[in-house]
Amino acid sequence: MTVSPTLDKRFREAAAAAGLLDVAYDLAETPVGMLLVATTGRGVCRISYDPQPEREVESLARTFGVRVLRAARPIDPVRHQLDEYFDGKRTEFELPLDLRHQAPFSRDVLKRLARVPYGQVTTYGTLAAEAHRPKAARAVGVVMNRNPVPIVLPCHRVVGASGSLVGYAGGLDRKQLLLELEGSLQRRLDV
Amino acid sequence: MAPVSIPSFESFYEANQDAVLRELRRLLGRDAEDAYQETFLRALRGYGRLRNADNLRAWVLTIARRVAADHYRRREATPEPAEPERDSRPAYAELGDLAEELPRKERAAVVLRYGYDLSYAAIGAALGSSEDAARQAASSGVRRLRRRMQ
After folding, report:
1. Whole-number average pLDDT of chain A
2. Mutual angle of helices B32-47 and B9-28, in 10-degree steps
3. pTM value > 0.95
4. Does the domain spanning A5-86 belong to CATH 3.30.530.20?
5. Does A29 touch chain B (CB under 8 A)?
6. In CATH, what number does A104-190 get?
């Protein structure tokens, strides 16, 4: 005998609605693959390209508290805005973020990253200079690589000084696809 | 942050959901599904305060039995109309009839102990008294029944 999907879902949504969770997460299907999206009471805290949830879920439990549960509804606003973004109907995300566990330098860089507009790119060195650490391009690269909320915080818009894509935690194919979607890759190659 | 040995609630929930539903079906029959949600909501309330991950299965089954006892008490408070299909009645219902003339507390203790198989600790918790008081109420209830049947 197993628990029916209806009973299971009813409990998960009730737990989220009662405000008893440290983190709610769910999977979201997108053109760049299945994403794991997680949110706390403060905002979106993780978007992961790793479609194997177990490891990510335990990592969320260690970082934000053990009451982590898969529940669809808390993730719906994110899912909705991602859909709009991938349909080309949204150029800016309007979602609160939970970056409380980021180190000060990372948080500073991520906040500057958030201001890089749709359809444009910047370089690791430029972000480093903006953060008053002009020699820290590599450190900025590390922050991009560990970006807890890719896509929403657009680390795909950060490229090398030569214009090469350099790297992406989700794989270069995805970076290229996101930049093509935003129309910036084509434009950059034309220059 | 202190090292956490407690697994995420998600993995705890997945590992125990079937066992909890099975136990609740055994104790409550058709009311098991309401009690299922209540059990895991109670578990979730306490989960953040757990200090070790030993015996999580036993811990959640204890919660399930308390929830079942509460449901049983509520059922007692609002008796349902007589059921027509006597054949399909579960053991605790028969015991309920048998114990009908006992004082309230003894009756509840007898039914929870012998009809629902709850521990005295769980019965005590359900009746708002101690484990010992629950054991005493059940045994004096049984003695009273025996005397009546002789």
Report:
1. 94
2. 140
3. no
4. no
5. no
6. 1.10.10.10
